[in-house]
Design brief:
By secondary structure, the protein is of the alpha+beta class. The protein is 28% helix and 35% strand. The chain is globular and about 40 Å long.
């Protein structure tokens, strides 16, 4: 019995290390760490990806239009800030002409993340039958997913749908 207790005591620290080093936690996107202050986010993005298309200090976000990132041309990438001026959410959207096109893009994004080694990307169905994906782990709550991939409606004329991936909102 003492041997079993000793073995369990020796293995316990290994379990903790494995949880802390999980690679599915979403700490950053586009080289910007969630929880960073707005000025740090803006400066980092502009150094790496060029001038932001929206960077009005009176707004709660900064954004790019038509930006290529990680193998995809995104029509809109927005970085949102909390009341504490900390980066807490990122939304990347691909505008689509038809609902079927948006669904195809959503599924392509889900497959791509799985192929990149994000094994925890899981496809679900909402109450209305629309598919969506959840994956990763929140950096602020290990019991929450890190991102959602879904289809949404758009207010852009001629492109009424979008496939989007949302990182957050995280508690910053």
């Amino acid at each position: 019995m003492k041997r079993i207790a000793l073995i369990l005591l020796l293995l316990a620290p290994l379990c903790v290390v494995a949880q802390e080093s999980a690679d599915d936690v979403v700490y950053n996107i586009m080289g910007v760490r969630f929880g960073s202050m707005r000025n740090v986010v803006s400066n980092t993005l502009e150094q790496s990806y060029g001038s932001l298309d929206f960077n009005d200090a009176s707004e709660t976000y900064v954004a790019y239009l038509d930006k290529y990132y990680d193998g995809t041309t995104w029509d809109f990438i927005a970085f949102y800030f909390s009341k504490k001026n900390k980066f807490y959410k990122c939304v990347m959207s691909i505008l689509c002409t038809t609902l079927d096109e948006a669904r195809d893009e959503r599924d392509r994004l889900g497959r791509r993340l799985r192929q990149q080694g994000n094994a925890l990307v899981t496809k679900y169905k909402s109450d209305d039958g629309e598919a969506y994906y959840l994956g990763g782990t929140s950096p602020t709550d290990e019991n929450q997913y890190g991102y959602t991939i879904e289809v949404s409606t758009s207010s852009v004329t001629g492109k009424p749908y979008s496939a989007m991936i949302s990182y957050g909102a995280y508690d910053y």
